[in-house]
Specification:
Gyrase A, domain 2, Elongation Factor Tu (Ef-tu), domain 3, 2 domains, globular
Length: 312
């Protein structure tokens, strides 16, 4: 995490739609070939289209989240903005799944950087991933429905808005305006209840628990790995856990610290940050059975919860 002297001032700048943030933890893969869109669509949880920006997941056979893909198709190529720590494993998986498809996967992370801009707008001639409308408070992503209803049941209202885009810049180029640090962006992301796959997930994480049904999962799309679990849980079950925004009393715990309701462990903290208005906050995934008004504690720090995903 970085800042440039005053992370609170940087948060306010980003919240006002100014500045930009370099994202060194993002890697860039490019797909080319005539089959790239239909091929990627067959592997992922959301519909992939030409000249479109999409969030999509690759799930394991049991429906757990493995990879989070920020997908941008420019008409000539499909760009994937992904977690740098998982980029090599993801590329290996994608290469293994090509079979006879006309697709080539290239890692361009040494030639390009990913930059966050706090405006949800397309950059001319640069691959631009627009944050899903749900996170930005600008409507909903077309995600269909199933017998269990629409995606709206998971997140009735988000705690705040996160407006912006991830732009793929050539290594030597940057947008105009002042640079802000990743601390500032993380605080705004947490306040909006937007989880980051990796920081806020574990090997058991399901899209339903994280509020990703809708933004990153299409309910009327079938035939991708893990889809049967997604449909079964949506139509006939309830997620075992739910994402919450925690407000800490005076101090920040370490990420990964257990969350307690009384003397019972109910989850773990993911991302944490100091927010310029809310103070110390964090995201956690806790047991669905935890009462929504339960007082929680983390490493002897009192915490109140604000629901992101509903206790269905």
């Amino acid at each position: 995490m970085t800042h440039f002297g005053d992370p609170f001032a940087e948060q306010k700048l980003l919240a006002a739609g100014e500045g930009w943030v370099a994202l060194p933890h993002r890697a860039v893969l490019r797909l080319t070939g005539s089959d790239r869109i239909t091929w990627l669509d067959s592997l992922t949880s959301h519909r992939i289209a030409s000249d479109a920006s999409t969030q999509a997941l690759i799930l394991d056979p049991n429906g757990h989240v493995e990879y989070d893909l920020h997908v941008v198709d420019t008409g000539e190529a499909t760009w994937l903005i992904v977690d740098a720590d998982t980029a090599d494993a993801l590329r290996t998986y994608l290469d293994r799944m090509r079979f006879m498809a006309d697709v080539e996967v290239t890692d361009l992370s040494d030639e390009h950087d990913v930059v966050w801009v706090p405006r949800r707008e397309q950059y001319k001639d640069l691959p631009t991933w627009l944050i899903p409308a749900e996170y930005a408070g600008m409507g909903t992503t077309d995600s269909g429905e199933d017998r269990g209803g629409t995606a709206a049941k998971y997140v009735p209202a988000r705690p705040d808005r996160l407006i912006g885009a991830e732009v793929v810049f050539p290594r030597s180029e940057r947008p105009a305006g002042p640079e802000c640090g990743t601390w500032a962006l993380q605080a705004l992301r947490i306040a909006a209840g937007v989880p980051e796959v990796g920081a806020d997930t574990d090997h058991k994480s399901l899209p339903h628990e994280l509020g990703l049904i809708g933004p990153a999962v299409h309910l009327a799309k079938g035939c991708y790995r893990g889809q049967e679990t997604v449909a079964r849980l949506h139509n006939m079950g309830r997620p075992p856990r739910r994402l919450v925004l925690l407000h800490f009393d005076g101090a920040l715990p370490d990420p990964g610290t257990e969350v307690f309701a009384g003397d019972r462990s109910v989850g773990r903290v993911g991302s944490v940050a100091q927010h310029h208005e809310l103070g110390p906050i964090g995201l956690a995934v806790i047991k669905r059975s935890t009462p929504v008004d339960a007082q929680l504690s983390v490493d002897d720090i009192d915490a109140s919860q604000e629901a992101v995903v509903a206790a269905l």
